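User: Sequence recovery, please. Input:
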């Protein structure tokens, strides 16, 4: 019996392959890069879902579509963080918990970024 993937894991893996490929790619090209034993139709379905969600564009190339991400990995991560905070009944507690879980280097990077953002707002 195979283990069930977490929700969105396969979409994330397909997006990662598109970012890695660095140019518009067909489902066959994405499938070739995946370590998973997936059917072509599964990859097509995932790419179609990503297109419907507005995360990729698609354009016809011969008989197939080619897909290209419209957001970077960093942009998507930031969007998801915003969505999670907006959905929280206590965003401050969520931030406190998040910050408390950061490594020392991550905390220093966050402090530096917050300082830069504050300086930009004052200018």
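Assistant: Recovered sequence (123 residues):
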């Amino acid at each position: 019996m195979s283990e069930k993937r977490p929700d969105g894991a396969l979409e994330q893996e397909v997006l990662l392959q598109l970012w890695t490929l660095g140019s518009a790619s067909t489902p066959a090209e994405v499938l070739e890069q995946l370590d998973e034993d997936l059917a072509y139709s599964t990859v097509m379905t995932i790419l179609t879902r990503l297109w419907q969600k507005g995360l990729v564009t698609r354009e016809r190339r011969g008989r197939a579509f080619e897909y290209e991400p419209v957001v970077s990995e960093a942009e998507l991560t930031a969007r998801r963080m915003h969505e999670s905070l907006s959905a929280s009944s206590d965003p401050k507690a969520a931030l406190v918990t998040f910050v408390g879980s950061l490594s020392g280097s991550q905390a220093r990077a966050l402090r530096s970024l917050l300082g830069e953002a504050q300086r930009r707002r004052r200018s």
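The chain has a mean pLDDT of 92.
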